[in-house]
């Protein structure tokens, strides 16, 4: 029995010493991610959404908007081309007029399985009292359609997360303001 204990102790000691002598295993290096991707966690962007966020922070201060809140510049230009930037990642909607940011709002975009499509679009139809032909004639106040499948931005409920069937929902008064500055042909950029 004593001999067995001595052999077992010797085996354990040898195993421990062998483990110490091999040193740590080399750790695989993480793949290098381009700097732009590290800064912008977007699936698709041309940099418009991050720029719009910076423009909004410069115009309105820190953007601590709660669901349904928005900011609109009191001294917004009365003329000039409009442009819309939608940030699906941050759930924000930005409006420019005459190359100046004039408004920012929270949104509710398409929920999982009905995601709002990314891309470059143009408003091709506007209606103050729009209705969905696809979803039980649901009201779409201040509707501005930019997608041939019926996707639009319009006034609607803003719960604080993506909840629509693909449209971009806006607070009612903000949607009314946006409707007043855009026209058929207004550029719509959706990044996320």
Structure in words:
Residues 82-191 form the L,D-TPase catalytic domain. Belongs to the YkuD family. With 192 residues, the protein is an alpha+beta fold. It is 26% helix and 27% strand. It has one domain (36-191): L,D-transpeptidase catalytic domain-like, CATH 2.40.440. A hairpin with a 4-residue loop joins strand 2 (82-87) and strand 3. Mean pLDDT is 85; it is low at 14-38.
List the helices and strands and how they pair.
Blueprint (H helix, E strand, L loop, with lengths): L1 H21 L12 H5 L8 H13 L9 E3 L9 E6 L4 E6 L2 E7 L12 E4 L2 E7 L7 E7 L6 E4 L12 E3 L1 H10 L5 E5 L1
Parallel strand pairs: 2-10, 8-9
Antiparallel strand pairs: 1-4, 2-3, 3-4, 5-10, 6-7, 7-8
Please supply descriptive tags for the structure shown above.
192 residues, 6-stranded mixed β-sheet, 4-stranded mixed β-sheet, 4 helices, 10 strands, 26% helix
Low-pLDDT residue spans: 14-38
In the CATH scheme, the class would be Mainly Beta
- Second rung of CATH, namely the architecture: Beta Barrel
Secondary-structure-based class equals: alpha+beta
Structural Rg: 27 Å
**Strand arrangement, major sheet:** 1-4-3-2-10-5
Instruction: Report the end-to-end length measured between terminal Cα atoms.
Output: 71 Å
Order of helices and strands: HHHEEEEEEEEEHE
- What's the total count of β strands? 10
- Mean pLDDT across all amino acids: 85
